[in-house]
Design brief:
Order of helices and strands: EEHHEEE
Largest sheet: 5 strands, antiparallel
Strand order of the largest sheet: 2-1-5-4-3
Length: 112
C-alpha cells in the first residue's frame, strides 16, 4: 500500500510539495479544488500562487514552521493548514497542505 493511499479516501484536499516547492502529490479533492481536476504534479507552487503567498511558502520551507488560517472561497469557509513533513533522516522534505470546508453550523468547544 502506498503511504498516501489514505489521502484518496478523505473528503478534503491534500497537497504535498517537496523542499523545492514542486508538487509531488495531490489527492482527487485537491485536483478538483486547486486545478479544475487537472493533475499538476511536477509544477512548482510559485507558478500557482500570488507573490505574497509564494513568500509565505518560501518562509515555511526555510523555517519549518506551520501556517494555519481560514478563507472564504465560493461562498464557503475553509480551514487551510500548511505544515512541514520530514524525511527519515530528519531533514525537511517539503510541505503538506490540507484544505477543508468548515460547515457554518460547526460547533466550537472550549476545552481548557
Amino acid at each position: 500500500m502506498d503511504i498516501l493511499d489514505w489521502a484518496q479516501k478523505v473528503n478534503y484536499a491534500v497537497t504535498v510539495c517537496d523542499a523545492e516547492a514542486n508538487i509531488i502529490y495531490m489527492n482527487e479533492a485537491s485536483r478538483q479544488t486547486n486545478s479544475h481536476g487537472e493533475d499538476i504534479c511536477g509544477r512548482n507552487l510559485k507558478d500557482c500562487h500570488s507573490p505574497q503567498s509564494w513568500e509565505t511558502i518560501r518562509r515555511l520551507l526555510a523555517t519549518g514552521e506551520s501556517n494555519i488560517y481560514t478563507i472564504s472561497k465560493k461562498g464557503r469557509e475553509k480551514l487551510i493548514y500548511q505544515t512541514p513533513w520530514h524525511k527519515e533522516d530528519g531533514t525537511l522534505g517539503g510541505l503538506v497542505e490540507t484544505s477543508m470546508v468548515i460547515p457554518p453550523d460547526a460547533p466550537h468547544f472550549n476545552r481548557g
